[in-house]
Amino acid sequence: MATQRGIPWLEIHPFGNKRSEIRSRRGPLRQDGDRRLPRSPLVPSGQMDYPRVLKGAMYLELDKLNTLEEQNFALRTQVKELVDQKLDRDSRLDHFSEALDTRVQEWKRVMEEKDAEIEELQSRLFLLAAQAPNIQIDTERSRVALLTQTLQKQEDQIEDLQNKLAQATKELNEGAAIIEQLGSRRSKLKSSDIDAAAASQLKAVLQQTEERVRLLEGKLKDSEEDAQAKALEMTEMIVKLREYESGEYGLMEAVDEIKQLRKQRQLRDRQIEELIQSSNKLQEEATSLEEQNMALREKLGISAETPIKVDGILAQRKKEQLLVKNRRLCKRLSRLCEQLKSLGQSPDVSTLDEQDSVLALPAPQDRELVRADMQLVISEAVSSSAIGRLTSMEAEVKRVEEERDSLKQGMVYIEEKLLAVTKENEALRTGMHEILDSVRSQDGSSDVRLESQCLERLLEALDSRHISGWYHPAMRLQAQVQTLEGNNTALRDQLRATRLEENKSREQAQKALLKIEHLEQKLASLEESKHSSVGVTAYREMGLPPNLSLSSAEVIANLNMHLLRVLNEYHTEEERNRKLESRLEELNEKFNIVRHQTGLLYRHHGEEKITWESKQREFETEKNVLKDNVARLEAKVKQY
């Protein structure tokens, strides 16, 4: 930052020198006006207004001086504002990067603790699975998988935010480079409009970067909240697993629960059988009712396709109800009339006639019609009752069939779940094999020795007794052969990749050496120019003669400016050389690391090859032994 602050001062300083030179030249100009200004032959010497001409020239010089001072002041204020803004921005960016680093470190620490807890819980879970291989904890495992996926997403978001932060820092550095370019070009530019435009452009870039930093801070807060929520879910899951391990929900409870589920399944099977039997009975009753309906239709002369209207049946029922009510009312009226006669009172004839007219019994012809209607109504009622019973039986049969379908779907769901559980057990077994193979493959490459006896015993038990009940003695040997072949292919790919990296690092080292030679040549030329510039500065310290012309003073000022530029370039070249030297050292270290890794890979590949060849020989011997056993067995079979 010191170099960045010093560069604008060095570039503004020549304006102050120029101002002092102009003031020092103003006195000799007044004294030597007569000598420098030529006299016109047409105008006499007495009529020449030399003071007015000198005043005009002086005013012009003062105007130029004032304009230069104003430009200098404006540029100083702009540069000061830009430097303050850059310092503020750098401080904010440093604080933000420090806070982000601390948060990332905290997240990493939390993730490491969670990974350690997960590994511990998985090891305990494997021990429990070894004690009781039929117990499955599907929900906890699925939730753990979901939580790991969410944590992976959070890590991806953090990496994305870090990339965006790096991009923002890159843009800030670009803004600083633009500020430096503006300071270097300000000494060459004469108009202030271009500087103002560049300053406004830099302010716009600064505002954009600040907005991006705010957006990144908001995204970071959101990601922190999501991470906290997922961490809470993870802690809840871990608490549940610890309760399972501590014995609050232990192995005996899980076994009892499995037994209860089996009993419930047996009860459901019995219920399904009973429902199937009842549905068969209902189906038989429905067929018998349908046959009765057809017989009644044949007796009544109604075809099977013609529908029966229910409206007429309802009207006949209402008519029957009215007739029964009429009879009851007639009987009651007769009783009332007899009571009046016994009391010695005669009933009102008009009322009796009205009542007789209203409640009179039907005539004989009407009675015959009523009987015919009654027979028809009775037949229709019998058929309607049969139809109603048939419809109710059909509805009952449909309900039973629906229940049977739902139970079948439940059985299918249970079978699918059982199949998924078996597949998951198979995947777990293969995953444990892969874990054991990866542990064995990494055991030789690291200094730490890894032992996994419990995992090996568990895998041996799973291999000896497969989930489906079949016994596969050669499956483990085939898996080992496949893993060895996969390890060999992976080692070949790693060797190829290391060779490519080694070639790339060699090319980069050669390019760096060529660049260093080129920079050393430039440095030598700059040192020569520096020695020559030292003489120029020594010559400048001697002082200028009093009667020196304006052009020579400008030449000396230009030489001073050129000397300052050369010194600045010299410092930048020195810094660049240091960076290149550090980069060359890093490349050399990487090259040594890559060479060491290739040596380790070659050695590891040789060891793996030897072990693979020994195992291949063992497999061939086992194969020959098995062939001999098969031949003996075939001979015994032929003998029998």
From TrEMBL:
Cellular location(s): Cytoplasm, Cytoskeleton, Cilium basal body; Cytoplasm, Cytoskeleton, Microtubule organizing center, Centrosome
Predominant location: cytoplasm
Compositional bias segments (type: Basic and acidic residues): 21-37
Protein's UniProt name: (California timema) hypothetical protein
Coiled-coil regions, chain positions: 65-226, 258-299, 474-529, 563-636
GO process annotations (BP): ciliary basal body-plasma membrane docking; ciliary transition zone assembly; non-motile cilium assembly
Sequence segments annotated as region (Disordered): 21-46
Keyword annotations from UniProtKB, A to Z: Cell projection, Cilium biogenesis/degradation, Coiled coil, Cytoplasm, Cytoskeleton
GO cellular component terms, semicolon-separated: centriolar satellite; ciliary transition zone
Lineage, highest ranks first: Eukaryota, Metazoa, Ecdysozoa, Arthropoda, Hexapoda
